[in-house]
Amino acid sequence: MTITVRYFASLREALGPQEQVAFEPGLTVGGLRDALIAKDEAHAQALARGRAVRCALNQVMAREDAMVPEGAEVAFFPPVTGG
Predict the structure, then answer these.
(1) C-beta separation of 52 from 81 below 8 A
(2) Which terminus of the chain faces fewer neighbouring Cβ atoms within 10 Å, N or C?
(3) Is the dihedral of CA 3, 53, 55, 34 positive or negative?
(4) Which pLDDT score, from 0 to 100, does residue 80 have?
(5) Does the pLDDT at position 82 exceed 70?
């Protein structure tokens, strides 16, 4: 399954604006975050479990237990992104 992962604010500065990611079906938003943390040092630092990171699934705020469907867009961003 392929999904689009988008990053905003400081996460965008660290990881770029977006990436396409392939995963097995049954993935949750939290599982995606954990997999990205394991990907490399840049992702590990930006998405670390000790950091406050908000998530959106298909442009709707989501909890980490939300299931990610095929073709979804998952966005990660800090709690305050400015305006």
Answers:
(1) no
(2) C
(3) positive
(4) 75
(5) no
Return the CATH number at 27.
3.10.20.30
The whole model's pTM is what?
0.92
What number is the average pLDDT over the span 9-16?
Answer: 95
| β 54-57/73-77 pair status | antiparallel
3-state helix, strand, coil in the chain (%, to 5): 30, 30, 45
DSSP 3-state of 74: strand
* pLDDT exceeds cutoff 90 at 83: no
Q: Residue 42's domain spans which residues? A: 2-77
Please list the alpha-helical segments (H only) found in 1-83: 10-15, 29-39, 41-46
